[in-house]
Every structure is written in structure tokens, then in C-alpha cells.
Amino acid sequence: MDEIVERTSPHFSPRENGVVNAIVIHDTGGKTAKGTLDWFSSLTSKVSSHYLIGKDGTVYRCVDEVNKAWHAGTSELWQDSNVNEYSIGIELVDDNDNDPYIEEQMSSLIELCTDLCHRYRIPLHRVVGHEHIAIPKGRKTDPGFDFPWFEFLNTLGARVCEIGMKE
């Protein structure tokens, strides 16, 4: 993740309490970053995320972290509803569950999540997929069965610990 490209979406609102303590990972179900960015900027979509990560690893910031992006819909994490209020939403460009997440994309995701977990002190059990928080259960399936949760969370945890040991 070399730099973050600004591509602001109009679909956000202020956070009521300013607390960020979770990360929600989504997939776009679309083939390109451009298509998703166009959808996020469309006045009719009413959806957004804080970040979008393209297949090539490019990271786009669509909503500033101080604001609430509209990514989770009706949702609950550990019996706490309105997940948009306290989470950072990250979309991954992914056409379908047979379209693998590639190294450049996963590397950018790990780097971004490491930074977010460190800055906001987000524990690993609060880094989840849309599928884990959507109400009713089963309403969403992203980031999908092909997302490498085991490797992702192990690598993320190791990176966050490494930063903590340096402080």
C-alpha cells in the first residue's frame, strides 16, 4: 500500500460518539474498482465504505474515518447493533467467490488493517466480514467462502503485535 487515492463518496453521516472499534470486510461483487467507485459516487446508490481495495492493491479512501460510511446495513456485532456507527468498512474488488483474492490486494488489506487496528486498538475478534454481522443471519455472504480468514487474521495479529513490541 504505497499511497491512498482520495475518491470521496457523498454517502456518509457524522458518527454520533466518535468511537471506532471494529473493521468490516466486504467484497464488491463487481469486476472493477472504477465500477464500484462510480456506484459509491452515484446519488442514487446510498452506499459507501471508508476504503476500497482494487485487485492491483490500490487503496481508495471514499469516506473519512471520522464519519460513518453506509456499508453494513442492518447489522449487529457481539450484540451491539448499528455497526456502521463504530466500524471502518473496507470493500475488496471481487467478481464472485471463484475469483481469488490476489497477493497485491491481500497485502494492501493487511497493511491497512494493521494500521487501523494499531491506531484504534481494535482487537482481532472485531475484524469481521459482512456475513458475520448482517441481520438477519444469511442476508449477506461477503467476503465469501474464498476469503482466507485463517491466514489473514494470523498475519494481521502478528503484525499488530510486532508494532506493539517496538513501542
Descriptors:
alpha/beta, Lysozyme-like, 6-stranded mixed beta sheet, 4 helices, globular
Report what the structure shows.
The protein has 167 residues and is of the alpha/beta class. The protein has a single domain (4-166), classed as Lysozyme-like, CATH 3.40.80. Helices cover 29% and strands 20% of the residues. It is built from 4 helices and 10 strands; from the N terminus they run E-E-E-H-E-E-E-E-E-E-H-E-H-H. The chain has helices at residues 33-41, 103-120, 130-133, 149-166; strands at residues 4-6, 12-14, 22-27, 51-53, 59-61, 67-69, 76-77, 80-81, 87-92, 127-129. The strands form 3 sheets. Strands 1-5-4-9-3-10 form a 6-stranded mixed β-sheet, with helices on both faces. Strand 7 (76-77) and strand 8 (80-81) form a beta hairpin. Helix 2 crosses helix 4 (149-166). The longest helix is centred in the last third of the chain and has 18 residues, at 103-120. It is globular, with a radius of gyration of 15 Å. The model has no long low-confidence stretch (mean pLDDT 95).
How helix-rich are the residues, as a percent range?
25-40%
Question: Structural class of the secondary structure composition?
Answer: alpha/beta
Which residues sit in consecutive blocks of at least 5 with pLDDT less than 50?
none
Annotated CATH architecture: 3-Layer(aba) Sandwich
E-strand count: 10
Seen as an oligomer or otherwise, the chain set is single chain
String of helices and strands: EEEHEEEEEEHEHH
CATH superfamily: Peptidoglycan recognition protein-like
Distance between the termini: 22 Å
Q: Estimate the global geometry from the Cα principal axes.
A: globular
- Computed over alpha carbons, the radius of gyration is 15 Å
- Roughly what is the average pLDDT, rounded to an integer? 95
According to CATH, what is the class? Alpha Beta
Widest β-sheet, arrangement of strands? 1-5-4-9-3-10
In the CATH hierarchy, the third-tier topology is known as Lysozyme-like
The domain tally reads 1
Strand content: 15-25%
Alpha plus pi helix count = 4
Biggest sheet, open or closed, and with what strands and sense?
6 strands, mixed
